[in-house]
Design a protein that fits this description.
This protein is an alpha/beta fold and 318 residues long. 42% of the residues lie in helices and 20% in strands. Helix 1 runs parallel beside helix 9 (257-272) and helix 2 (38-54) crosses helix 8 (201-209). The chain starts with a helix and ends in a 7-residue tail after the last helix.
Amino acid sequence: MKRSILATLAVLAATSGFAQSWPTKSVKIIVPYPPGGAVDVVTRRMATKLQEQTGQTFFVENKAGATGTIGINQTVQSAPDGYTLVANDTTYALLPHIFKKLPFDHEKDLQPLGAYMFAPMAVVVRNESPFKTLDDLLRAAKAEPNKITYGTGGAGTMPHFASEALGVATGVNFMHIPYKGAGEATLALLGGTIDYQIASTPGVIGQVKGGKARLLAVSGDKRPSALSNVPTFAEAGVKGYGVVNFTGLWAPKGTPAEVGARLQKEIATAMASADMKAYAESIGAEAGAWDATTFARNLAERTAYWGKVAANTSFDRQ
């Protein structure tokens, strides 16, 4: 018994020491989507900041496919040592509602570590679009149901559900055109293949600033300072549409708590910095950080919320 206790203490001491020294080598962050979308853009910025703060390399590896589940499952199967993480957004809360069966346990196989960069969802049209306001778009959709098209990174993604939620809230029917990723959907928008897109502001802000796209409305309770000329959904006449996207990091189940605590601290430090606050403002987002407890609670709430949306959305579960 004494030897067993001593052995346990030795393991705990070793784990604690490991956590305190983490990271001692490169950290991989899997982005389960193609390059160019909001999760990819924001995660790369966070990776750069974490690298600056810790002195170790944080790099992004894109593993796209199956609404993010390929990259997520790769993370689940990785060693729980803090050197493989996965990034995602609100889409993670949708997964139980769009798949008949997931290759991992949605609630247990990943540990939420921290969330940051809270960005509104926006209705985006190309600059040459005849729709100058959200009301213009909705009137056209009501006049000809299923003619106005919108694009997303695929059926069951958060932009898909957000677009369907807009349809439910306004009593209109749009035509969904799925693409391989959010970036591809944006290219289709700019090329005139689709009429509009609902996207997180970080993924489209560059096109807006470049004069190639316009925003008709943004979610949230107030206009972002960088988008002060864009009305909120409420101001545009759509009440109760409060979808706000976050970006977060998860680790495989069993990752040492001390490693998670260290990463939460680094995320909070990053989001309190002047450059990250300025970056958040520049992409129409709000700088902030959720610790693991707050993150887990919000995930549970949002998973329940999107379940209700899914019940009113027509799509084939994968």
